[in-house]
Amino acid sequence: MDIRSVTHVKNVYPSAGGAAVTIIDQTLLPNEVKYIELASAEALYEAIKLLRVRGAPAIGICAGFGMAALARGIDADGEDFVREFERLADYLNSSRPTAVNLSWALKRMCSVARAVSALPRAERIAALDREAQAIQDEDIDMCRRISEYGLSLLHDGAGVLTHCNAGPLATSRYGTALGPLFLGRERGMNFHVFSDETRPLLQGARLTSYELHAAGIDITLICDNMASIVMKNGWIDACLVGCDRIAANGDAANKIGTSGVAILAKHYGIPFYVLGPTSTIDMDCPSGDDIEIELRDPEEIAEKFYSKRMAPEGVKCYNPAFDVTDHSLITGIVTEHGILRPPFDVSLRGLFNQKR
Ligand code: MRU
Predict the structure, then answer these.
(1) Which residues pair with 36 in a beta bridge?
(2) Residues classed as catalytic
(3) 56 with 12: CB under 8 angstroms?
(4) Which of 26, 183, 297, 324 is the most buried (most CB within 10 A)?
């Protein structure tokens, strides 16, 4: 398969006329590639909550196009328009708490809505469409640049371990943690990638191995508890993972299980890199302790993906969707502006001061 058909797939985009958002329903992958339209606030909320669209940048992009679509249905002007727009944005924002990209994109849309609220309706909608498109276009550019920086950390033939899915499906193109692998492959490089299956929702099995396999990249799927043995065997030169929120001290929230991978990597002396756009960095969040961790339905552990229930009825389950990797375990944070090194409180502050 042509690698471009994988990396260039857009999994979130506005439908014709812009009154709905079209996404690939990721819950059906890898067995079925189905596009669905989200035309109401409830449908958008449900799609984000149930991970039909998922991955920190992708949910931000979906929310951006979603708000532009919803604006068409607001029958009000001026302050009333803004009030209703913000109410809908708050509702979407409550769908998932951990990935900062969601609130970041919604804030951008709300500030445009406020700025254009006095304009005629058609101009208002056009401005919101432009902002949503800008969020996606910027993401494509950020992912491409992250991929370049990330690739500079890998040699031809490198063994790479990744967790969850931070590829094109989670962003808009290339991805973050998987971006260097796609870019390297385009340039004729080879990698041996190990993907944790990523219990309980199997983003590694269903999505990462799907994307990498389709692109002709050597991919081996392992259960989460096999990461230690592949590291001990000497098969891993670097761990590459995505992120949902990076705090000002460099602590990084990502899919549950990521911090365990980082602890193992430290033990085996393997570099552990977190890759993400600056839209995932939350300088208002001092440390990982301040990141809200989403708790999900216990049934995802006990029943989902089994042909019959695999835990006694009524047994207690704890199902946090994310964990926080302590900054002391991270070798580098790869952003679209370059590779940040410890101490991360200093390098992150430097990056944001520069951006101002
Ligand atoms: O619950 P998910 O599947 O949305 O979790 C996604 C992750 O943890 C990704 O690694 C993260 O969002 C980065 S995507 C570029």
Answers:
(1) 23
(2) 244
(3) no
(4) 26
